[in-house]
Amino acid sequence: MGCKEIQATVRQIFSNYIEKKGLRKTPERFAILDEVYARTGHFDVETLYIQMKNASYQVSRATLYNTMDLLIDCGLIVKHQFGKNIAQFEKTYRCRQHDHIICTSCGKVEEYCDPRVHEIENTVAQVLDYTITKHSLYFYGICSDCRKKNKT
Ligand SMILES: [Zn+2]
Ligand SMILES: [Zn+2]
């Protein structure tokens, strides 16, 4: 699936969601969705806001925050609270499933992918008879760079 197809698909998902919620399909909301899906990795709303402003988008902070909430609610983005840092976001559609480990000393965030997490999810869903829609798993610790620095 290419970039254009992903953009079309997530627009369709968002469009259906907005319709279901009885909200207005404003061009601003779709511009924000496009911006979010043009990104890779983690980002915060303030950075996104400044970059959209610099690219001459007519988007207010209120609209941006409100749209981010809608995108979380319909599952197109996920919000992370990595330690004490400000909230970070990332897109979810067609993105490799991964979890995060955070260094509490330097704030570095790393991603890892372990298929066993998915197996646990399936087992829990089966045993407790749930349809699991999402999970949240964060490991915190001290990275090797910070450990090295502390020794010298
Ligand atoms: Zn560190
Ligand atoms: Zn991530």
Quickly describe the structure:
This protein has 152 residues and is α+β, with helices and mostly antiparallel strands.
Describe the structure.
With 152 residues, this protein is an alpha+beta fold. The chain folds into 2 domains: 1-95, Winged helix-like DNA-binding domain superfamily/Winged helix DNA-binding domain (Arc Repressor Mutant, subunit A), CATH 1.10.10; 97-152, Ferric-uptake regulator, C-terminal dimerisarion domain (Dna Ligase, domain 1). 49% of the residues lie in helices and 14% in strands. The protein contains 6 helices and 5 strands, in the order H-H-H-H-E-E-E-E-H-E-H. The strands form 2 sheets. It has a 3-stranded mixed sheet with strand order 4-3-5, with no helix packed on it. A two-stranded antiparallel sheet has the order 1-2. A hairpin with a 5-residue loop joins strand 3 (99-103) and strand 4 (109-112). Helix 1 (3-21) crosses helix 2 (27-37) and helix 2 packs across helix 4 (61-73). The protein is globular and about 55 Å long. The protein starts with a helix and ends with a helix. The mean pLDDT is 92. The protein binds zinc ion (ZN) (2 copies). One zinc ion binds at residues 103, 105-106, 108, 143, 145-146.
What key phrases describe this protein's structure?
152 residues; alpha+beta; Arc Repressor Mutant, subunit A; Dna Ligase, domain 1; three-stranded mixed beta sheet; two-stranded antiparallel sheet; 49% helix; 14% strand; globular; binds zinc ion
The helix/strand series, from N terminus to C terminus, equals HHHHEEEEHEH
Number of helical elements? 6
| CATH level 1 class label of the largest domain | Mainly Alpha
| N→C terminal distance | 49 Å
Q: What is the overall silhouette? A: globular
Mean pLDDT: 92
The helix content, as a percent range, equals: 40-55%
Characterize the largest beta sheet: strand count, sense, and whether it forms a barrel. 3 strands, mixed
Overall tally of structural domains: 2
Strand content: 5-15%
Stretches where pLDDT is under 50 for at least 5 consecutive residues are: none
Q: Give the strand tally.
A: 5
- List of distinct ligands in this structure: zinc ion
Give, in spatial order, the strands making up the sheet with the most strands. 4-3-5
From the helix content, strand content and strand pairing, which structural class follows? alpha+beta
CATH superfamily of the largest domain: Winged helix-like DNA-binding domain superfamily/Winged helix DNA-binding domain
CATH topology of the largest domain: Arc Repressor Mutant, subunit A
CATH architecture of the largest domain: Orthogonal Bundle
Radius of gyration: 18 Å
